[in-house]
């Protein structure tokens, strides 16, 4: 067994281990075994978006050495990955692919928003092709600040995720529910990006009575709402 | 910069040839010749065939709203070096059409598509006029001045909503959808049919059906990317395959289109500086260099002499870091999974340490200012640099050379693959190591010197074959030349201030235009800035080397095997932040 749990923790009070086998048997909860193994072998998806991806590669390289924490196996295939590091600016053109990749990841799956852009749009937030934060679409577990975050920052984020995983329990984790977790609907590239979950809202807003736009018409402005 | 624009003799020659149909751009601080739209092909043919301006550097556009015109601007140079010329045409905003120049200068293909995408100017007879950075069906053309973003606040920064009160309002909360989106009126999302890139696939099929084939075999369309480990980011190639052989290939970009140019029009001149770092994020110092000299030329100021040396020191360190990274990742693409890259990154980390000590950040340095650099380099950092230059990098370059150059697998995978002849390279407006590996000794540091490069000794490396192997070798050569420059800079760097004049937050840039270019690690990085005298530019265009270089990708890949396409892309060495901007 690894060094993350102390001997006292294995031997929870209430489970008396006979003294003659005390050195060979450890008793713990299933949660702890799951969380311990899971948090120490997280495979990130090999998936870079922008500048932050360069720092992610540097983190994986020999100087910062991600493998010290059990995460060196970067997988290009979403089926084999546990954690998606959204490393960079999420653009509207790219977000359908990101959501599709997330849907294809097998559970349990985690998302790290690395850098200011993935957290909330960053310096490019006002851009017309930029999604202000991946959390508009995916459930994010850990946010890492920085533009770009240093490799130490990314390591800290991953360790934070490990700590978070260690808090998981079977009854509350969404991957142990009987019913399957619904897939996230993939955003569509229309006249602008739209989220299929917001169809009714969009319809209502674009079909508002014409009086709402009198100002626009008077100035001959763009027909946007 | 004088009020009277100096008229180059070549302009007089063009004017005397075409007479009435052309006129000089006589606005103060504007350059070039304005041609009539219908005459542009004739003028450019003359310029190319009789005056030998064979290298089209950039095509871009400026929206003159509220005036009813869009300017299309062509920057042309001679591949033997020298000062360039500028040709403009004015088209109306309502029905903007201009003949495509792709058959004269094939390098204009993607740049014209970009203008079509962002300005809505149609290029007649363009081989493949589709949206490039955005997607088919996007509403509007964003770089038109009357097009506003969903989160539009004011025409220029700093926005009143953020300063001086400094109260934070989440801009999304002002939008009815609580997101950064807007839709045309009467848009019904439930009935919407997306294009699903059928336009793109049809274009490919058309192209591939053209090839005569006696035995009918089905063609296969393969998408590489945007999520693919060997596309160096979110790049996508769509290849039509005949067996394993590539019949046609289309690069699909825009997955990292971060609207640098639209945001740049809102920013003040100084606020753009940190954005330039994020263009080509592997060589941020070089990008700032290009932007700084462009604005300095517009303002008519000279940087402090010590700052000139520091700038060149940083630019060359950046070039080494970028080339060494590129070599490492080319090997990754060849299948030598990660080991050579680890060797390369070790050296890059040491260079990044210097940047961090100097500028405070490893990658996004934001170190240059108009008139100098932001802080002085101290003895300790200088010692680090000279240690690296004299004692380590040369040895490590030789080490890479020794391990890789004669490796049998590398030679058999790289030699003769992805050939670009020198004529093709010039025609496709390819720059940087790609152009020089095809045998064209064109380097802006020599052809159109900036900074103090004209006082330094170095050679322009060339190779003759124009294949992947030569592109690898030329990067090694250039690292050695950069080290040579660094040694001179380290011995010659003078004492003195690092800023000329007083440090200004808001610089005044006189109205006018300027096209400034530097030799980045990937090629010619140009900044085309138009000022109307206000605190923020009227137009901020980046002529990104990687973006123009991938115009030649299809040409290099045609006839190659699908596995080689990955290698060829690796040898072009694109950075997506710059391709998509």
The CATH topology annotation of the largest domain in chain B reads as Cytochrome-c3 Hydrogenase, chain B
**Tally of domains of chain B:** 2
User: In percent terms, what proportion of residues of chain B is strand?
Assistant: 5-15%
Q: Provide the low-confidence segments of chain A as ranges.
A: 217-225
Largest beta sheet of chain B: what is the strand line-up?
1-2-5-4-3
Shape, per Cα inertia axes of chain A: globular
What top-tier CATH class of the largest domain in chain B fits best? Answer: Mainly Alpha
Our estimate of the beta-strand percent of chain A is 5-15%
Describe the protein in words.
- Chain A has 225 residues and is mainly alpha-helical.
- Chain A is built from 8 helices and 5 strands.
- Chain A folds into 3 domains: 7-39, no CATH class; 51-165, Rossmann fold (3-Layer(aba) Sandwich); 188-219, no CATH class.
- The longest helix of chain A has 15 residues, at 151-165.
- Chain A is globular and about 80 Å long.
- With 581 residues, chain B is an alpha+beta fold.
- Helix content of chain B is 39%, strand content 15%.
- Chain B has helices at 9-18, 40-49, 109-119, 198-209, 260-266, 269-277, 284-299, 305-334, 339-359, 379-404, 408-414, 422-427, 433-437, 444-447, 468-492, 545-549, 553-557, 562-572, 576-580; strands at 22-24, 33-35, 55-63, 69-77, 85-92, 97-99, 122-124, 220-224, 236-242, 245-252, 368-369, 372-373, 512-520, 523-531, 539-543.
- In chain B, strands 1-2-5-4-3 form a 5-stranded mixed β-sheet, with helices on one face.
- In chain B, strand 13 (512-520) and strand 14 form a beta hairpin.
- The longest helix of chain B is centred in the middle third of the chain and has 30 residues, at 305-334.
- The mean pLDDT of chain B is 87.
- Chains A and B meet through helix 3, strand 4, strand 5 and helix 7 of A and helix 5, helix 9 and helix 19 of B.
């Amino acid at each position: 067994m690894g060094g993350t749990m102390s001997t006292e923790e294995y031997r929870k009070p209430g489970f008396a281990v006979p003294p003659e086998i005390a050195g060979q048997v450890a008793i713990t909860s299933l949660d702890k075994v799951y969380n311990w193994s899971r948090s120490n072998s997280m495979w990130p998806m090999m998936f870079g978006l922008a500048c932050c991806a360069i720092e992610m590669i540097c983190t994986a390289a020999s100087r910062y050495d991600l493998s010290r924490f059990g995460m060196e196996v970067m997988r290009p295939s979403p089926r084999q990955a546990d954690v998606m590091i959204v490393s960079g600016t999420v653009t509207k053109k790219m977000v359908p692919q990101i959501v599709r990749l997330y849907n294809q990841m097998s559970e349990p799956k985690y998302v790290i928003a690395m850098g200011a852009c993935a957290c909330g749009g960053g310096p490019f937030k006002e851009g017309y092709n930029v999604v202000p934060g991946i959390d508009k679409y995916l459930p994010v577990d850990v946010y890492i600040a920085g533009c770009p975050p240093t490799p130490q920052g990314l390591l800290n984020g991953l360790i934070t995720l490990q700590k978070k995983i260690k808090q998981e329990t079977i009854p509350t984790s969404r991957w142990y529910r009987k019913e399957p977790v619904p897939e996230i609907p993939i955003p569509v590239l229309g006249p602008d990006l739209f989220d299929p979950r917001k169809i009714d809202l969009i319809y209502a807003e674009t079909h508002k009575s014409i009086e709402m736009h009198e100002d626009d018409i008077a100035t001959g402005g763009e027909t946007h709402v | 910069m004088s009020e009277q624009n100096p008229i180059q003799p070549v302009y007089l020659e063009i004017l005397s040839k075409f007479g009435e149909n052309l006129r000089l751009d006589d606005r103060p601080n504007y350059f070039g010749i304005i041609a009539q739209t219908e005459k542009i092909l004739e003028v450019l043919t003359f310029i190319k065939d009789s005056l030998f301006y064979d290298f089209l550097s950039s095509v871009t556009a400026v929206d003159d709203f509220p005036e009813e015109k869009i300017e299309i601007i062509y920057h042309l140079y001679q591949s033997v070096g020298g000062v360039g010329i500028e040709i403009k045409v004015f088209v109306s905003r309502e029905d903007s059409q201009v003949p495509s120049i792709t058959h004269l200068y094939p390098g204009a293909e993607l740049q014209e598509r970009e203008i079509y995408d962002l300005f809505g100017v149609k290029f007649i007879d363009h081989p493949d006029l589709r949206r490039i950075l955005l997607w088919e069906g996007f509403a509007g053309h964003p770089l038109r001045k009357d097009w506003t973003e969903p989160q539009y606040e004011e025409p220029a920064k700093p926005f009143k909503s953020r300063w001086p009160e400094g109260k934070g309002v989440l801009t999304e909360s002002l939008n009815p959808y609580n997101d950064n989106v807007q839709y045309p009126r009467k848009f019904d999302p439930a009935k919407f049919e997306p294009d699903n890139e059928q336009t793109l696939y049809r274009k490919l099929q058309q192209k591939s059906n053209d090839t005569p084939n006696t035995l009918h075999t089905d063609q296969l369309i393969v998408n590489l990317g945007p999520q693919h480990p060997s596309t160096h980011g979110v790049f996508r190639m769509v290849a039509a395959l005949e067996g394993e052989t590539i019949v046609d290939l289309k690069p699909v970009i825009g997955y990292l289109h971060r609207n640098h140019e639209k945001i740049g029009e809102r920013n003040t001149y100084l606020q753009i500086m940190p954005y330039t770092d994020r263009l080509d994020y592997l060589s941020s110092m070089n990008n700032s260099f290009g932007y700084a000299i462009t604005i300095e030329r517009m303002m008519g100021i000279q940087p402090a002499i010590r700052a000139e040396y520091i700038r060149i020191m940083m630019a060359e360190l950046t070039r080494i870091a970028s080339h060494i990274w590129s070599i490492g990742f080319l090997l990754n693409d060849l299948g030598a999974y990660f080991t050579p890259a680890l060797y390369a990154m070790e050296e890059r980390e040491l260079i990044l340490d210097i940047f961090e000590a100097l500028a405070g950040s490893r990658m996004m340095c934001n170190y240059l200012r108009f008139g100098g650099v932001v802080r002085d380099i101290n003895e300790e950092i200088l010692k680090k640099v000279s240690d690296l230059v004299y004692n380590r990098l040369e040895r490590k370059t030789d080490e890479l050379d020794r391990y890789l150059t004669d490796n049998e697998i590398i030679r058999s995978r790289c030699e003769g693959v992805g050939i670009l002849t020198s004529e093709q390279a010039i025609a496709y407006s390819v720059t940087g190591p790609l152009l020089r590996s095809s045998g064209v000794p064109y380097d802006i540091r020599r052809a159109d010197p900036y900074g103090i490069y004209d006082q330094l000794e170095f050679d322009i490396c060339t190779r003759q074959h124009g294949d992947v192997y030569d592109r690898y070798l030329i990067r090694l050569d250039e690292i050695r030349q950069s080290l040579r420059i660094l040694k001179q800079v380290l011995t010659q760097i003078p004492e003195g201030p690092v800023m000329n004049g007083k440090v200004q937050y808001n610089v005044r840039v006189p109205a006018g235009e300027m096209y400034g270019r530097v030799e980045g690690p990937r090629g010619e990085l140009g900044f085309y800035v138009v000022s109307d005298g206000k605190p923020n530019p009227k137009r901020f265009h980046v002529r990104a080397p990687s973006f123009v270089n991938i115009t030649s990708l299809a040409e290099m890949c045609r006839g190659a095997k699908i596995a080689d396409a990955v290698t060829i892309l690796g040898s072009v060495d694109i950075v997506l932040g710059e391709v998509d901007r």
